[in-house]
Amino acid sequence: DIVMTQSPLSLSVTPGEPASISCRSSQSPLHSNGNYFFDWYLQKPGQSPQLLIYWGSIRASGVPDRFSGSGSGTDFTLKISRVEAEDLGVYYCMQALQTPYTFGQGTKLEIK
Amino acid sequence: EVQLVESGGGLVQPGGSLRLSCAASGFTFKRFWMHWVRQAPGKGLEWVSRLNEDGSTTNYADSVKGRFTISRDNAENTLYLQMNSLRVEDTAMYYCTRDLGGSQAFWGQGTLVTVSS
Q1: Within 10 Å of residue B105's Cβ, how many Cβ atoms?
Q2: pLDDT digits (tens, 9 = 90+) for B61-108
Q3: B109 touches chain A (CB under 8 A)
Q4: How far apart are CA B46 and CA B74, in angstroms?
Q5: Average pLDDT over residues B10-31
Q6: For residue B36, which of B90, B83, B95 has the smallest C-alpha distance?
Q7: Contact between A55 and B103 using a beta-carbon 8 Å cutoff
Q8: Cβ of B109 and A92 within 8 Å?
Q9: Digit-coded pLDDT (tens) for A10-52
């Protein structure tokens, strides 16, 4: 199974400041079609996860442009350029290259 | 509006069975791979199973293989998860998801399964 390791596991950010979350996969989630089968999700309190970034760097429909995804090989990063209060929750990375799909442990973002 | 509405969760004793349903609306259900993902209370996300568009291809997590069966009825726009030989460690919120790993990934609100004596 592909193991996904996130860091940090928690962070506290002042509104307006940037935030960054890293995720490392034990194998590259690069598909033969050239896309990384790697996503970022946000689970807000009491809600189901919502897609933020797919294929490593593409923002999902309706996701604010303060969110960006980057990375290659086995190392990926989610950046929030200016954190807003509504961004609190748990962020998960996920690989969808092979079954079982696997998730990182989650990074809890708190707002100062 | 895309909707995935799960149902069928509840309290069951170890060794018991439950059948979860996921009613889909607002999109062409038969065109998408569908998945089940679960989340134990206070824990992270665990992928459970997936099914292709016509139901001919399935995959399962090792933790549920041989006990859970995923299926779909494209005429009724419904996804199912038959869960047998339930264990305490199967206690979780079960989410129905569309196109997991794709550009149109969408999750339902979940149904809670509690396995306890």
Answers
A1: 21
A2: 999 999 999 999 999 999 999 999 999 999 999 999 999 999 999 999
A3: yes
A4: 25
A5: 98
A6: B95
A7: yes
A8: no
A9: 999 999 999 999 999 999 999 999 999 999 999 999 999 999 9
